Amino acid sequence: MAKGAPAGGRRHGTGLVALLAACDDGVMTRIMGPLTTTLTTTLTTTLTLTTTLTMLMLAGCDGDVDAGACADPCATTAPACDGCPAIAESLCQDGACVAVGDATADLVGDVSIARGLDGVIGVTIAVVDARSSDCASLPILTEAEGVLAGSRVDVSGGPFHPDLAFGLVPAGAVLVAADGLDDAGAVVGRGCIAVDASDGANDIGVVTVAP
Q: Which domain covers residue 49, as residue numbers?
């Protein structure tokens, strides 16, 4: 017998090949059974995770895209003064900017400063297209979108300021709002009402500015 040869004269080499060659069927079953189960479990888990992540990504994309939103802000005019809102030249409707219609409704109303709201020296007033926002979510008027008319008015001599011209706007559902300003130009109070503006003169009533 050659030196170093295994009993029986069989040679299996070294490493994993030798180990597998030396194993009988029972040993191979005991080795490959758990290994196959582990590999199957790993592949199943990987496929499940991949499918789940893909579904989440697709759901996220669908949720983040607003079909009615415009890709870019619609055109506005530059504010006419410090504290005046920018006036919309077009409005976002169904994902596209559409030119503002003819202004046929003339809105006039009163502004009242609520009791306890001190330091108001001016108000920013505006008429906003109701499709752009509602009173609860309307930002400060100098940052609002969909403003159809607006200006800044200095106030003094008491809390009630009648017959303010809110502006000439297209007929339809609008928000009439006023932001109370202190001497630093900060907004310290807000008033907002919803109005259905019709052609011709509209007395919108009282907008009360409160903290």
A: 13-64
